[in-house]
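[job 0412] stage=fold_complex status=start
inputs:
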Amino acid sequence: MNKKSTLNQDSADNPKECCSEESRRKFIVVSTLGVSAVCGIFPIASGITTILDPVKKSAGNQAKVSWTKVAPLQNLTDDGKPAKFEVILEQVRDAWTTYKNVPVGAVYLTRKGDEVKAFNLKCPHLGCAVDFRSKSNDYFCPCHNSTFGLDGSVADANSPSPRGMDTMDTKVEDGVVWIRFQQYRPNIAEKIPLS
Amino acid sequence: MNRFLDWLDDRSGIRGLVKEALYEKVPGGARWRYVWGSCLTFAFFTQVVTGTLLWMSYSPSAQTAWESVYFIQYQVWGGWFLRGVHHYMAQAMIVLLVLHLMQVMIDGAYKAPRELNFWFGIALMGVTLALSLTGYLLPWDQKGFWATAVATNLVAEVPFVGPMLQKIIVGGVEYGHQTITRFFAFHAGILPAALIGLVVGHIYLFRKHGIHVKEPRPKRDSYFWPDQILKDGVACLAVMLAVIVLTLYFKGAPLGPPADPSNEFPARPEWYFLFLFQLLKYVPAFWGAIIIPLALGLLIFIQPFIGASRKGHQFNIGFWWCLLAGAAGLTFLAFSEDQANSNHVAAVREADWQAQRVIQIAEEEGIPPTGAVTLLRQDHENRGRRIFAAHCSSCHRYNGHDGRGYSVEEDPSAPEMAGFASKEWLTKLLNYEHYTSLEYFGGTAFKDGTMAKKVLKKFDQEEQELLPEVALLLSDLANLPYQEPLSEEKKENLMDIFYDDLVCIDCHDIDSEGEGSAPDLTGYGSKKWMIDFIINPEHERFYGKKNDRMPCFGRDNKLSFEEIEIVVDWIRSRPAGK
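[job 0412] stage=fold_complex status=done
writing structure:
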């Protein structure tokens, strides 16, 4: 390193090399800026991926929603009246912890013969819990007054909800109702799954 | 752009500030020896940024600290690299501190009028060391846990208030949630804040007095910008590259098995504290942790005054060289003693194994809310090794060690258990030389028993050649997971040897109701046979009254049925040498 300093010294002391002195200075300024920029960016660059991790993981990772047992079929009346059930997932992985038997939400189930429909309890507007009103035989969200018919569709033109209640896949096996529990992005007309 | 800058300058005076900062005079020209302060600032800046990023995924509690660090290391995108940079930059900081300090000492930059700044520097060194110490615990792995236990026990040596101080730092008597939350608050809050405050003072005082130059000046004066900054930047770049290389080479920072107070681990601090650790082998804790550091601290404090004279300055430089040499010597001793200690080497290897194992299980099954330590405690593989080490290894060996890789001082007094009932194990057993060696029954009464003296020793050449066939037969009964079963035809042929050629059946039963005087070999080496044997070797089926010191683990409730099953599964799971 000392060699370099002496070199610089020489050229600086020699008045004939005025132009090379100018370009030398330019070179120093540019390289100083470059080096400083690299050093300044390095810390954040070394860890920026960790912040982006959730975005990366959710990309193209939507198909796999597993079936979950909800209730025995016999617990549903055959008249189409909805009943509310907790959804308990066998296993939920939350970052570093894996929980067993976790309540993750609730559904309304309605039955016609052997056909079962499931509606997410969450209002597709902004996520409040929707009530079933047996008097008027419809669903009503107590937050912003969205109303839904028994089939889950928006019942009132003034309902703020942009879409009907969210349905999900159901099946009946050995007298037990299974669903594929899935949440969707709120407050848009399309059903886009969250994952 | 210019108009905006004019406006900003008018309102803030920013141009003057930048000018002030950049056009600091560097008397005697820019020099490489001035780069260390900037490198330290760069290192600290890196620690603040990477630390904050780590903070975004770290959870300080006894059940989530290790788990979230595991998450960062193995699940989060690029998390291992981030951890590595934070870890190795912390070590680089220690090295840079020493370089900065020695430059200041040698150039005499600590003397009047810069005494105050020297003290700021020493305080900064203390804060940096405290940051390392507190950060070491945060992953809540075995290494951090046990080393911190030692460090906090030293706090109790402080006169009068020691035990109280220890309780405050640990957050109680036991290490747990409160210890982590407190250490984390120190590591990510109090200490960085203190460091920033001290650095501001340090830089202010540095600017007030200017750069201290050793005469004669090597060159014309120049300015901080750009000449010195370029040198500083290149040095920072070198530090950065070193940290990146270390991170890539070691694949990030190490993560040991989760902290477990019931699972012993040899406590060792980070390498730059090893000299203190080694010192405590020679002097009482009170001297090593209180008196000596206090005395040295006091001496360092008055060094600016000692340095006023030429002789004093030389003494100061000599003092630091001696201190460094002493620390280096002690560090070397600590390393070489550990390397020469086979138990320490085994303990480190065992911890590596546990770490690998728990990470493997965590990946397969996930971590329960009770924490990763329960994964390891319930793991049969891990428990098998530990049960063997605790209950079997005082007589038996496993591949010559205690089951976990620790050597045992005494000679074995019962057979080697690795590869028990395998073809190779039995072939050796049925050889008189091996039978009476320490590897098998050499340490027991059976060395002079009927099998040794009246059977194996008496076989002629032709009979001896049949013994490996018997080994094959018995080994097949064991039904070991790593051995192919024999064909029925082959088995019948071998049975003939057992019955007719060598008449083993005279003493040993196989599938017969005889009253053999020697152990019943029906299902020999199978899971059930081994469990029954370990429950009660004195049973008539086995040794009966001839049993030589083998405890009746099940009959006398020394081990539960589950524990016996676990250790049997473990012994039977793999061939010898693995």
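[job 0412] summary: The beta strands of chain A are 68-72, 83-94, 97-112, 115-120, 131-133, 138-140, 147-148, 170-173, 176-179.
[job 0412] exit 0
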